[in-house]
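Re: How this chain folds, sequence and tokenised backbone to follow
How to read it: Take the token row as a discrete description of the fold.
Start of record: The labelled sequence and token lines come straight after this line.
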Amino acid sequence: MDAQGRGQAEDIDPADQWVLNPDTGDYELRLPSSAPQSPVPGPRRATPAPEREVPAPRRRRAKPEEPPPGRRDRRRPAKKKAKKKSRGKKILLWTGGTMAFVILAVGTAGYLYLQHLNDNIESLPDDGASTGGFQKDQAINILLIGTDKRTGSGNDGYGDKGSAGHADTTLLLHVSKDRSNATALSIPRDLIVDIPDCPTTQEDGSTKVIAGSSGVRFNQSLGQSGRTPSCTMRTVTELTGVKPDNFMVADFNAVKTLSSAVGGVEVCLAKDINDPDSHLNLPAGEHLVQGEQALAFVRTRHSVGFGGDLSRIELQQQFLSSLMRQLKSNDTLTSPTKMVKLAEAATEALTVDSKLDSIGKLKDLGLELGKLDTKNLTFATVPVKDNPAEETPVTVVLKEESAQQVFDMVKNDISFTEVKKKEKEKKKKEDAAVAARLEGEKSEPSEVRVRVLNGGASAGSAGRELTYLQNEAGVTKSENAGNAPAELARTTLEYAPDQADQARALAEILGLSGAAMKPGESVTNSQGLPTMTLTLGKDFKGAGVKLDATSAKAPEDLQKSTADKVECAK
């Protein structure tokens, strides 16, 4: 488009040329009268000097028939009411999509000038590492990657200016199937992981398999050895068991341009901060930051918390939470000017995968995310600990049990907030009749003998559930029996008639419904004693998580917060 078509001529703000049509509820491009546009171009003709003419007699319009006495014509008011309702409905759609997550806000702005924004979007192949793209009727998993690439105006002064762009800040955004809750799980850049072999599309269109690496930092899954975001996708799948649907990549410029597009982001400091490395110098209190100052805020680590990357992750989560709250409370979403700026900034700053490379797809994703309530969006960090292999730890490793419980909750679509009370009550009523068989005496947990098999749950589930049973539930006479001969959709407990009291006790501990109880035969355990068989099916939701639960208690050591709460950097 030329300068005039984009609204850049004569210092005209492009947003001022997008005018709301009250008849349709849509924004339409209205160019100034000084630059008229013809629908069909043709040869220009000289315009003769205007001459004064006597206007021709005007023809009178026939007066509309008057309605009969006592009756009013209600057609026009009804029409206006319908238009008003339609316009309000569209504004709600825009609002929902943008509010869900700031870097996905471009989705709702797609209603403006689609082709121009489509031209802004840069995409990279997913190389088969994704699910093929999000689905509207399924849970959604988006991998959000912030790189430390220094390209762009003013960014070469931040050190490491030759960086290829590693996975410096990474979040796995999980949105529940029913859209009632979401989790943004931060993956520390210094976490030691195994990076798998990565088939990667080269610039000439050929495919090259980049060899994997064992025991390296997570941030090397991008940029190192020519790895692309699809390799980071594969690494996340290997780590969490969750396969992302799409990815989005942002560099330093994205933070600066997006924060400026919304007019700044409110942040809170519990103390004075003067960090020469990030260039952030602010006194304690609340501040509105944008551009370079916003980038300095999210890069600060030496002056907050323990001075490491984990403290910076908390700061970045606070920043994103504040940004979302601001979008919800201020006039950004109803301002065409701000929406244009936000759309321009997002489409120019973000790189997406080839399955998400159009405004239409981004808009659809934004509208799905718009169904969320900020109080049910949890920001959390993968549970980690200092690397014991290092005398002076500079990297971290997983806290295996806690981390796996978090991964299982995400994989099995379990909310970190309580949001499904109605569904929970309904399920209890449906199970009431079947649960009658659980009535009767129950053994003490220490008297329960059971072997645990994995029949379709995630890898390692039997071992983690055994650890829970022995260490927390008191079922000390339990053992791991490995994998079941076949996968099951639902978890079952098989027991002999004389083990009914043990079965009732275990069912209460695990939250098994009557339908999960399977009267049958006992087997012999490793001590030669009769034992029940617990087979974990595909519905297994994680160690210690009751099968009849619709939400679960997160590990006590999990660092988390919700987007509706104001946090101050300490």
